[in-house]
């Protein structure tokens, strides 16, 4: 029995010493990963679509002014691939084509008391081609935070022409966000949050497919619309 107790105490002491060593010198996974000139990966995530609206201030035939807004954010699905080119230890150039599947509801309300709220659903499947620059901080153990910014070309592949509000098929975006490289034993997991702000007016003012007065009610109420997205993604590199 004393020998077993002695062996147990020795094992406990060895375990405690090992934990102290690991605390001072943690294991660094993928130590040479950041030295690669380029690498590839893929990502999945979710997003929300929004519209920033400038109103025309033009009253209808009854003298009522109409105002539109996106009352709530509906989650959508995002998927894409990426390619990263290393410029130096802190900068990299990244191309990350993606598809964002989602919808957004647009509510139109009058300034007249007791008026009915008109709601329409806009489906937008954005094909985005962003080219961004990432500035990464120094690596600490298995973590490395970064900031990113760039521009993107967006194409709406899910729009339906005969709907109350029609958005343009092509738009340009400014993208910026932040994330963190998490080094795991066999790959890097990179959670990222980014904001996509549309640079142009996406509202179709001239409608050749107007078949009813309902289209005109929306068309006259808006002067300009810009598209916005918030994207949360998990990248596997």
Give a structural overview.
The chain is mostly beta strands and 237 residues long. The protein has 2 helices and 10 strands, in the order αβββββββββαβ. Strands 1, 2, 3, 4, 5, 6, 7, 8, 9 and 10 form a 10-stranded antiparallel beta sheet that branches.
Could you give a short description of this structure?
The chain has 237 residues and is mainly beta. The protein has two helices and ten strands, in the order H-E-E-E-E-E-E-E-E-E-H-E. The protein has a single domain, classed as Beta Barrel (Porin), CATH 2.40.160.20.
Which sequence of SSEs, written as H and E, runs from N to C? HEEEEEEEEEHE
* Helix percentage: 10-25%
Which CATH class applies here?
Answer: Mainly Beta
Question: Number of DSSP helices?
Answer: 2
Beta strand count:
10
Low-confidence stretches: none
Distance between the termini: 52 Å
β-strand percent reads over 45%
Mean pLDDT: 84
Given the C-alpha coordinates, what overall shape results?
elongated
Counting structural domains, the number is 1
Major sheet, described briefly? 10 strands, antiparallel
User: Rg, please?
Assistant: 26 Å
Please identify, by name, the CATH architecture.
Beta Barrel
- What would you call the quaternary organization? single chain
Q: Remind me, CATH topology?
A: Porin
């Amino acid at each position: 029995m004393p020998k077993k107790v002695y062996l147990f105490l020795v094992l406990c002491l060895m375990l405690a010493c090992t934990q102290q060593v690991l605390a001072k010198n943690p294991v660094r996974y993928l130590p040479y990963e950041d030295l690669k000139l380029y690498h590839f990966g893929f990502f999945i995530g979710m997003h929300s679509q929004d519209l920033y609206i400038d109103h025309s201030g033009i009253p209808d035939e009854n003298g009522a002014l109409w105002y539109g807004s996106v009352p709530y954010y509906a989650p959508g699905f995002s998927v894409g691939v990426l390619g990263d080119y290393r410029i130096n230890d802190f900068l990299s150039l990244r191309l990350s084509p993606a598809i964002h599947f989602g919808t957004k509801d647009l509510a139109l309300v009058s300034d007249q008391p007791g008026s009915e709220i008109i709601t329409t659903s806009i489906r937008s499947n954005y094909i985005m081609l962003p080219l961004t620059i990432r500035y990464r901080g120094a690596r600490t153990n298995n973590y490395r935070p970064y900031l990113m910014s760039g521009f993107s070309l967006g194409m709406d592949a899910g729009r339906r022409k005969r709907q109350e509000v029609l958005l343009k098929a092509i738009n340009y975006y400014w993208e910026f966000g932040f994330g963190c490289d998490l080094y795991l034993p066999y790959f890097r997991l990179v959670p990222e949050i980014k904001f996509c702000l549309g640079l142009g007016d996406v509202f179709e003012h001239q409608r050749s497919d107007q078949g009813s007065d309902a289209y005109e009610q929306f068309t006259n109420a808006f002067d300009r619309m810009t598209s916005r997205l918030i994207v949360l993604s998990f990248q596997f590199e």
